[in-house]
């Protein structure tokens, strides 16, 4: 097996929170894509990183609009994740027919019922191979229902965390 195939197989074993990263086009059209390569960058000031394929509408439009929102999905939002991953046949604005959507301060679409939403101003982006690394300054954070199970992607499929493992000394 070649190194690229081994790398892909290894990365399939890395579990990640499922998010939908959204932005706006030049005429206000909503666009979004399912992503798992998202993480916090700093707490002070609040900032996140999202790695997006440059050929997606979000990869093409976020650098132009200067905004994006990271929506962290709950288990019951799997259908929405599948839709924004391109598995339902919906494209562009049609994808926003799945789920309930609102807008935050930036104007970027936010998914109602998400575990958390991070409304961001694009501080910079870095091009690397097929992807863009979006660095966002978080202007607003929304927190959803605490009791909801998170949607997690690993080994090519969706799952959830069903129990908490506590470290010794933590209560």
Overview of the structural elements:
By secondary structure, the protein is mainly beta. The protein has a single domain (12-159), classed as Pnp Oxidase, Chain A (Roll). It contains three helices and twelve strands, in the order αβββββαβαββββββ. A hairpin with a 2-residue loop joins strand 4 and strand 5 (46-53). The model has no long low-confidence stretch (mean pLDDT 92).
Task: Give the topology.
Layout: H1 3-11, E1 16-17, E2 19-24, E3 30-35, E4 38-43, E5 46-53, H2 57-65, E6 67-72, H3 78-84, E7 101-103, E8 109-111, E9 116-128, E10 131-143, E11 152-154, E12 157-159
Key descriptive features of the protein:
Pnp Oxidase, Chain A; 171 residues; 7-stranded antiparallel beta sheet; 3-stranded antiparallel beta sheet; globular; mainly beta
